Amino acid sequence: MSYFLTEEQQLIKNSVREFCLDPETKKASSVDRKQGGFPYESWKLAAAQGYIGAYVPETYGGQGYDFTTYFIILEELSRMGNPASMVMGAHDLAILPLLYWGTEEQKQKYLVPLASGKAIGCGAVTDPAGLNNYPEWGLTITEDGDDFIINGTKVLVTNAHAADIKVVFGKPSGSYFDTVYVVEKDMPGVETGFNERKIVPGNADWGTVNLKNVRVPKANRVVDNGFGMFWFGPSFLSISLSALVLGDTAFQKTLAFSRQRTRYERPMTDLQAVSHRLVNMAINNEISRNLIYNGIRLWDEQRYDEGYRIACMSKVWVPEAINKNLHDAAIMHGGIGFTPQSLVSMMWVSSLQLEIAEMPADVHRDFVAETYGIKPGWKNGRP
């Protein structure tokens, strides 16, 4: 946890832990894990506590916390294994463009229920042709009177079926996203339920959204108001935070295992090769924590360009560093590390997902380069 919590933030952190340990919460978590898919029971309880969309101003259904406090909540939920934490990041991907680009009318209609958790959201971004392969996206949007008619497919969408409000990302006119469309679950032509199976099962509704002649009011078009795609920053940092929790959990498990396991009647921590790997894991975690919380504090200070740069750096560094942590954790557990009971290898596979989610590291290296005025070579004359 960050070393610089205010008294209020420490109290909130403690209250989240107490919430996770409450018998009702533990019962809901157990139910959600057994049934799989979207964790409806855990979601309801987290929403009742005000954890969903807690960073949104109270005017629009949130708690009015800063993002740092929200990250403290999210980290503690993740650390305690609460299933709601596994889908909150995807929900945020629906909230953020509305929060930073939305008109007052759009916020009142859609942001309020999303921020309160009364509605479930998703950000439908990836085209079958590839997330960053914008020129080959198959999504089409045509005007027809007061409506847009949307045709296309979005794949690998978290909360795909459960989401009441699906924020569909339109084809960028240049290199960056500048338009999203708010699509309601029950609009004619919206088809979901084609869920993909992950290598490591979890509480996620992850699949495809098909849009077949979906008629969306023009009032549901959310356009960049000049803020730009900087609002992706908190989302990138949220993914990094999920990776950090995995990395820290791996460190704690491996440290305990290495102290308990012996070699020639001495703990494995007496072996320099083991102790050095443990130290490297701890260093990776500390660097990751500093990147994440420095980035989100910059965001809270409305230093958005700096916060966005750190967020992209974080999305490069943290998943790669944590992947190395989990590799070493599996190696140090030996054959036990390859069993489901140890969870180590399962966490390692899960960390790969976080490297891929919301664009892999090399794309983020391009984003970072552009903040320094360096144009990535792949653009070949494109803006």
Number of strands: 10
Order of SSEs, N→C? HHHHHHEEEEEEEEHEEHHHH
The structure class reads alpha+beta
Estimated radius of gyration: 21 Å
Named CATH architecture of the domain at 228-379: Up-down Bundle
Query: Within the largest sheet, what's the order of strands?
Result: 1-4-5-8
Average pLDDT confidence is 94
Strand content: 5-15%
CATH fold annotation of the domain at 228-379: Butyryl-CoA Dehydrogenase, subunit A, domain 3
Low-confidence runs: none
Shape: globular
Number of helices: 11
Proportion in helices: 40-55%
The CATH superfamily of the domain at 228-379 bears the name Butyryl-CoA Dehydrogenase, subunit A, domain 3
**Distance between the amino and carboxyl termini:** 40 Å
Could you explain how this protein is built, in words?
It is built from 11 helices and 10 strands. The chain has 383 residues and is α+β, with helices and mostly antiparallel strands. Among the domains are: 103 residues, Butyryl-CoA Dehydrogenase, subunit A, domain 2, CATH 2.40.110; 152 residues, Butyryl-CoA Dehydrogenase, subunit A, domain 3, CATH 1.20.140. The protein has a 4-stranded mixed β-sheet with strand order 1-4-5-8. Strands 2-3-7-6 form a 4-stranded antiparallel β-sheet, covered by helices on one side. The relative contact order is 0.10.
